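Quick illustration, no need to memorize.
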Amino acid sequence: MLSAAHQKIFVLIAPWVFLLLWCGGFTVAKIGFTGAEPFTLLSIRYGAVVLLLLPFYFYLKPALPKNLSGWLHVAWVGFLIQVVYFGTAWVSMSNGGSAASVALITSLQPILVALSVPYLAGEKVSLVRWTGLGLGLIGCVWVILANNEINLVSGTVFGFAVVALLGMTTATVWEKRYGLSHHVVVSSLIQYTVGFACTLPIAWFTETMEVTVTPAFAFALTYLVVCNSILAISLLLMMIRQGEVTRVSSLFFLVPPGTAVIALWVLGEPMSPMAWVGMLIAISGVWLVSRSSAVKPTLPKHAPKH
């Protein structure tokens, strides 16, 4: 556990670092697709993360989960995020779905989390927070519509994006409800080993597994391994454990606006003046959620004690 002083600093800085790293991932993934198909890229990414973390594990020798239940909880969250969320979101984008469209669909996650947590995580959502969630959703949609980036997509592309949404929502609530505080190296190793073990066979049987290495692809892979896989996911899981899950999940409303800003800075893609209005609405909604207090939680009687 973090000390009170460190926790205060973490609460202030972590959300913005996470958002910056996570938003950049949509654009970088598109770059990565120029060199490899989705599950091939994912398997390379996860294998690289495992190889990168192994020396740290042997040097630090952190404690492993104490029982089978602990192993399964960590592995299940890893499967939901690394295989279900990233796998289906990337397939959706690689088959014609724009990054903006997929980001918009998956940004509905805070609403689903808010509907689920009273029953699954014992966290009741106040009226003020529901207002903030509503503003976040309105601002998120406003930004995308203002930039004219919503494309009509096939039912298959839409379906994969919805599965990605459900995967991340389930992972978020499950981590808050059942997750234990393991060393970040241990949880990452377990989860990315699960990701690698699942995505490699999928790539083998469904893709050509051809890889074209270019400077752009190398940059994309490095970013996805270090920034998305190690830093962003670790921050996300730590924020869920340290704070209220509704507050943390509300950050996903800022992903589409943040992605648009990064595209403006990095790729020079224009951003409509009206989109800035939507961004302010989304930010105000997330601020309202983060500033308000949650209703006193009441866990179900069958909740396990850790």
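The two ends are 15 Å apart (CA to CA).
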